[in-house]
Amino acid sequence: MKKVVLIEDSKTLAGALKGALEIEGISVVWASDGVQGVAAAKREKPDLVLLDLMLPKLSGFEVCKLLKTDNSTWRIPVVIMSTLVDEESRLRATEAGADYFIPKPYDLAASMAEIKKYLKM
């Protein structure tokens, strides 16, 4: 079973995405802030991290950089899902090591197709 760590502070968005992923047979571990998210990724060793940029405690940029510079997590693909869609935010996400960027509000079907690509499903 594929596993995703979802780092999203919106309980509503996290619940909707978690439900959609679980319907596809994907195990989801949800973290509501950056600190919990880094800990979950290190503990769970997921196949993919889905990451919001605007988070409490640590920003998504910081989380991504921490994951991509840690020997135990650097290989895990990180897909950003954010309302910060300006060029500067996209560039910062890429510089932090993000593998892909999905703008919010997102089209669930198109987003799931991208997520499945990273999960090799």
Task: Put the structure in a nutshell.
The chain is of the alpha/beta class and 121 residues long. It has helices at 11-23, 34-44, 60-68, 87-96, 108-118, and strands at 3-7, 27-31, 48-51, 78-82, 100-103.
* Counted beta strands: 5
The gross shape turns out to be globular
Structural class by SSE content: alpha/beta
**Largest sheet data:** 5 strands, parallel
Radius of gyration: 13 Å
CATH class designation: Alpha Beta
* Average of per-residue pLDDT values: 95
CATH superfamily: Response regulator
Q: Can you tell me about this structure?
A:
With 121 residues, this protein is of the alpha/beta class. The chain has a single domain, classed as Rossmann fold (3-Layer(aba) Sandwich). Helices cover 45% and strands 19% of the residues. Strands 2-1-3-4-5 form a 5-stranded parallel β-sheet, sandwiched between helices. Helix 2 (34-44) packs parallel to helix 3 (60-68) and helix 3 packs parallel to helix 4 (87-96). It is globular, with a radius of gyration of 13 Å. The model has no long low-confidence stretch (mean pLDDT 95).
